Amino acid sequence: MRIAVTGLGAVSGIGFGVSENIESLRTGRHGMGKPRFFQTTLDVPVSEVKATNAELAKRLNLNAERTYSRTALLGLMAAREAVADAGIDVGKKRVGFISSTSVGGMDLSEVFYNDFRTDHSRGRLRMVSQHDCGASTEFIANQLGINGFVTTISTACSSAGNAIMLGARMLKYNMLDAVIAGGTDALCKFTLNGFGSLMILDKEHCRPFDATRAGLNLGEGAGYIVMQRANETVRKPYCLVTGYANANDAYHQTGCSPEGNGAFGSMSAALQTAGLQPSDIDYINVHGTATPNNDLSESAAIRRLFGDRVPPFSSVKAFIGHTLGASEGIEAVYSVLSVSDGYIYPNLNFKSVDPAIGLSPETEFAEGRTIRNVLSNAFGFGGNDTSLIFSKID
Amino acid sequence: MQPITITKSCQLKGDVLTVNGSEEPFDFKELVTNASLRRRMSRIVKMGVACGLKCAEGLPSEEIDGIITATGLGCLGDTEKFMESIVVNSERLLNPTPFIQSTFNTIGGQIALLRGIHSYNVTYVHRGLSFESALIDAAMQVAEGKKNVLLGAIDEITPSSADIQRRLGMTREYELGEGANFFVLNATASGSNSAAVLDIDTRSGRLTDDELIEWIVGMAERNGIKTSDLCIVANCNAATADNIEKRLPLKNKSLWFKTCEYPTLTAGALDFAINNCTANNTLIISDYQHINHSLILLGRI
Q: Which of A61, B146, B147, B273 registers the highest number of CB atoms within 10 A of its CB?
């Protein structure tokens, strides 16, 4: 059974909507800057979506008087675009919504907590009632009018990859007729300080795969794709989802093994699901967070799988930052367009090859290439590694 | 959906661990021998890891093809600890441990790490349907030919979350509960009289009594089972349970399970049903806060 991608939606620090995102990637316009939309004393670059919550609510035609978590607003923006793009009737019973997030409504909870911590009878309840991860998912599903299966996944930075994988499997098993899958995450003090405490934030603009890379930059946003069985689509599909796999590194709660065991496992198993050989992959959208550890481990896994014939690859993290629970949602959108339009995205800020890696990513935007299959990686805390493969329709 | 069997069930409530319904003594120090690792673990992580490791005991790591966990609210204790440290230390020199362990997939990740399990690993975090989502995924994994899947659910009460949920009116009907449950699922019916999951369905939003009855009858019909032959495990409030008894002619007496409320309580109801229902077909009816509903149909193989 063939699973087709029929709709795309994305919002990130480099654009509202898919075409703005691609235009930024094409022109090399990144989203990094000092934090403007949430309060922090940390002086590190982040890729924020360039709008306040009130502006986001207005763009979405929502009642601006009400309180929404930023995670929910970003998610609704991207999911709505994806549904409109696919032209599906979401009111039908077997349309599912599978979302993912790493912190849910934490942006509101931390405001609530300031009042609550010294006196548990204080703090506005509307600032904490959207704390749980399911809250943004239910909100988006309600706004879209989805009555079918709705769920939320949270496996840190690989969350959205797993949401897409679950969606594809549920279509395959005929449990759904269409599914909107991806993820959403808003920046907040909690996450920024969390990564800060791990000392993996670069104070400068991040440099994935570069010899001088010194850590990651965080970002926010949302990305969803609509999937349907290939013979049931309304519009001409972009491409197929042919491969997916999830493996565990089982090495360390936050670090990756030097041999990239989990990454090797998820990439090879994804190829197996797709029935493809390494030589069939024409481009890899790497996880490439720009931490010394991730890029070294991921490249070790790539070398193990592809030998001396490593296909063109790049990381978009220097454009949009690491968007955590949203990352594979947004990057799946980019990967889909890479297959359908032959795009290759530049890995910004790469200047010198790391001798320990010995690989150079793509640094120029390209289009019209023949890209048969794209491999897209997302790795997370807890050793959770997920790989997806998007393929051209013959 | 092809039937999947549940060959082992473990539950941890307070200090009491049960394996297949029978109490078993356990020593957490023997399960997690690394003292500094134990010290770093919060209460919910200890609960989940202990229950998960006990459930996986006896299975070689390479025969565990998936670890699927569910939690409605995740590691709240560590989340609050890290939030507090951000405020108190003004965002400077923070201890990363509570942040690391606050992620929702900590327990699944820790079990994989401690047992060296490299297979499929995912965590569901969708309110009162977290466990149901995990069960659907586990059923697909088994259908995909996976040997054994470790499926678990964990939620904890913390003083802060109890105060917040009380203020939100979420404790009007029931006091809050907590617990850890794990199961081993596979395709083969090893051992006689294993429970099998035949069907599962979920709904969100308010359900009227009529809609609930129609839903139950529909599930029984599509599985070729007479509703009168069902043993009902009512993981819903007493009024709903009474109404079901009145509306459906049941041969077996319904068992009322629900005595507390937390998002993954359905996992406790499943443990209860497996170990207490002797009828051929059991239906677990769950309701979380009247917004999340599920039906789980069990059979005997």
A: B273
By C-alpha distance, the chain B residue nearest A103 is: B103
Nearest CA in chain B to A200: B96
Domain that holds residue A343: 3-391
Instruction: Give the DSSP H/E element, type plus range, for residue A306.
Output: helix A292-306
Contact B301, B276 (CB under 8 A): no
> Would you say residue B191 has pLDDT above 60?
no
Residue A77 tokens, joined? 């923006």
Is the separation of the CB atoms in A386 and A161 below 8 Å? yes
Domain boundary among B122, B156, B186: B186
Query: pLDDT tens digit string along B90-145?
Result: 999 999 999 999 999 999 999 999 999 999 999 999 999 999 999 999 999 999 99
* Residue B267 domain boundaries: 195-300
- Structural domain count, chain A: 1
Distance from CA of A314 to the nearest CA of B (A): 26
The C-alpha of B233 sits at a distance from chain A's nearest C-alpha, in angstroms, of 23
Q: Is A149 on the interface with B (CB under 8 A)?
A: yes
Pick the residue with more confidence: A317 or B301?
Answer: A317
Q: What is the pLDDT of residue A374?
A: 98
Name the closest residue on chain B to residue A141, using Cα atoms: B204
> Mean pLDDT over residues A106-115, rounded?
96
Instruction: Spell out the SS3 assignment of B237-301.
Output: CHHHHHHHHHHCCCCCCCEECCCCECCCHHHHHHHHHHHHCCCCEEEEEEEECCCEEEEEEEEEC
**How many domains is chain B built from?**
2
Mean pLDDT over A29-50 rounds to 97
- B123 lies in the same domain as B156: yes
CB contact under 8 A, A247 and B137: no
Which residues, at least 6 apart from A55, have a Cβ–Cβ distance to it below 8 Å?
none
- Distance, in angstroms, between A199 CA and closest chain B CA? 9
Q: What is the DSSP string of B88-150?
A: HTTTSS--SHHHHTTSTTHHHHHHHHHHT--SEEEEE--GGGHHHHHHHHHHHHHHTT-SEEE
The answer for residues whose C-beta is within 8 angstroms of residue B44's C-beta and 6 or more apart is: B71, B74, B75, B76, B77, B107, B154, B155, B156
Is A175 within 8 Å of B136 when comparing Cβ atoms? yes
Residues 188-217 of A with CB under 8 A from B: 189-190, 193-194, 196-198
Q: What is the ipTM of this complex?
A: 0.97
Q: What is the CATH number for A11?
A: 3.40.47.10
